[in-house]
Amino acid sequence: MLLLAIVFARRRGPGESMARLFDGLAPHLPLFFVPAAVGIVASVKLLSQAWVHIAVAIALGTAVTIATTGWVAQALLRSTMEWRHRD
Amino acid sequence: MIEWIASLQDHALFGLALTLAAYGAATALWSRFNRSGLLHPVLVATLIVSLVLMGSGLDYQAYFIQARVLNDALALILVLLAVPLYRQFPRIRHAGLPLAIALAVGSLVALATALTLPVLLGASEQLLATLAPKSATAAIAVQVAELLGGVGGLAAVIVISTGIFGAVFGLPILESLGVDDPRAQGFALGVASHAIGTARAFQISDTAGAFAGLGMILNGLLTMALVPLVLTMLRG
Questions:
Q1: Which residue has the higher pLDDT, A81 or B28?
Q2: CB contact (8 A) between residue A53 and residue B161
Q3: CA-to-CA dists, residue B196 to A80, B162, B180, angstroms
Q4: Taking CB atoms and an 8 Å limit, are A54 and B99 in contact across chains?
Q5: Which residue of A29, A39, A46 is in closest CB contact with B151?
Q6: B108 touches A43 (CB < 8 A)
Q7: Is the CB of residue B148 less than 8 Å from the CB of residue B228?
Q8: A32-54 pLDDT tens trace
Q9: Are A14 and B82 inside 8 Å of each other by CB?
Q10: Among the partner residues B74, B109, B114, nearest to A32 by beta-carbon distance
Q11: What is the ipTM score, two decimals?
Q12: d(CA B168, CA B108)
């Protein structure tokens, strides 16, 4: 993805067909995760052995990660904007 | 009826048709209930497919092979995320330093919150290696976990659960904290919940989606560097 973005930058933009393919697929991105997600059912046994650790890491860990990342990003994005305006 | 399903399930396209039908039903339900987070299409479609598999006795491996084309297409679509990244490049360039700091904080918090309890309770190194890369995208997380002695299959399941959790609860959490800048919302979803969070961010706006794609790829790269380092320190 990063490589392709660099190629776009050099060619001054993605090709028409690639851009259209992306715009068509983007709203249905969740569909493509379903086959892998159903794997949850297949690993019930493995999950049952360490489920407390796993559940805490997924729920609490992800909530705290999203909250801190979003909060820091917004605080810093705003302060650099204000700094630019003052300039 | 059951015999009819049983004869269908051996068809090579059964898994694909089942997944498409479940996804169609899930999105219809989702739009009907005002796009409520708890009814996220990945969650509902996964539930429908799982119930049908359990009911019909088709095992997961056989289903996965039948629906594999969707999983393979995912790799192509992830590469195509370069399209919004390119479109948003002017806005991303000006946000370089804030995003770099937010990424470092987010990546470290993801690791710390995943490992603190297991380390305190003396969990096995195998579990630590499986849990540590959970916020990275599945392809990276599975490789990192296996390289460090974790269980790849379980790592994939944890990664996907993390993604679904972030897609469902991420936006309400951010809004309750007053984080309403779509760039910050998207970046947080991408860093913490990789591609599934990114898919959710694209439903907010193209801007949120592009920042999520950027957060996902940057956290994937940082995870590859950070997780082996932290696990080595914990062992030593």
A1: B28
A2: no
A3: 29, 9, 20
A4: no
A5: A46
A6: no
A7: yes
A8: 878 877 876 766 766 777 788 88
A9: yes
A10: B74
A11: 0.74
A12: 22
| Calpha distance A2→B79 (Å, rounded) | 8
The CA distance from B21 to B42, in Å, is: 13
Place of tokens 């994937």: B220
Nearest C-alpha in A relative to B170: A66
Residue B189 carries which side chain, given as an amino acid letter?
A: L
Question: Which carries the bigger pLDDT value, residue B200 or residue A82?
Answer: B200
Q: Report chain B residues whose CB lies below 8 A from the CB of A33.
A: 42, 74, 160, 163, 195-196, 199
Q: What is the mean pLDDT of chain B?
A: 84
Number of H helices, E strands in chain A: 7, 0
Give the length of chain A.
Answer: 87
* Cα–Cα distance for residue pair B236/B230, rounded to 1 Å: 10
Task: Give CA separation, A20 vs A2, A68, B38, B91, B133, in Å.
Answer: 19, 35, 31, 22, 33
Burial A38-60 (b: 16+ CB within 10 A, else e): bbbbbbeeebeebeebbebbbee
Q: Tell me the HSE value of B54 on the side-chain side, using a 13 A CA sphere.
A: 12
How close A49 comes to chain B (CA, Å)? 10
Q: Report chain B residues whose CB lies below 8 A from the CB of A35.
A: 15, 19, 63-64, 67-68, 70-71
Which residue of A18, A21, A33 is the best one to mutate when testing the B interface, meaning the one whose CB has the most B CBs within 10 A?
A33
